[in-house]
Amino acid sequence: MKNLAKLFVVVIVVLSQVSCAQSNKKTAEIKIKTSAVCGMCKEKIEKELQFEKGVTAVTLDSETKICTITYKTEKTTPEKLRLAISKIGYDADEVLADPKAYEKLSPCCKKDAGMHE
Ligand SMILES: [Cu+2]
User: Fold this and answer.
1) What is the pLDDT of residue 25?
2) How is domain 27-115 classified at the CATH fold level?
3) CA of 113 to the centre of ligand 1 (A)
4) Which of 64, 58, 33 minimizes the C-alpha distance to 44?
5) What distance in angstroms lies between residue 77's CA and the mean position of ligand 1's atoms?
6) Domain extents in the chain
7) How confident is the model at residue 19, as a pLDDT?
8) Rg (CA), the chain
9) Could you tell me the distance, in angstroms and rounded to a whole number, from the CA of residue 63 to the centre of ligand 1?
C-alpha cells in the first residue's frame, strides 16, 4: 500500500511536469508576405497586430514587406494571423485583403497605388 502511494505521488509529479511544459508558452515565428506600401503601412500593421491575441512580437520589413510575427502556438495560428492582416486591409500571403478594410486605407497605402514604380 505504501508503494502504491509512492507510485501515485510519482505519477502526479510527472503529470504536473508534462502539463507545465505544455503551458510553457511555446512560441513560433512566422514570416508573412504583405502588400504594405509605405512606412505608414508598416506602423499600422505592427501596431494593430500587437493587439492580436497570442502575438508577442511583430516586425515588418519595409524593404521586403515581409512581416515577421512571433506568436504563442496555443493562442493563435498562422491562418488567424493572415486573416488579421487581411482585416487591417493588406494581403497576407495567399489571403487577399479584406475589401472593406482596404477601402479605408489611405490612398498611398493601397497596393495598386504603388504600381508605377
Ligand atoms: Cu502606406
Assistant:
1) 76
2) Alpha-Beta Plaits (3.30.70)
3) 10
4) 58
5) 26
6) 27-115
7) 64
8) 21
9) 13
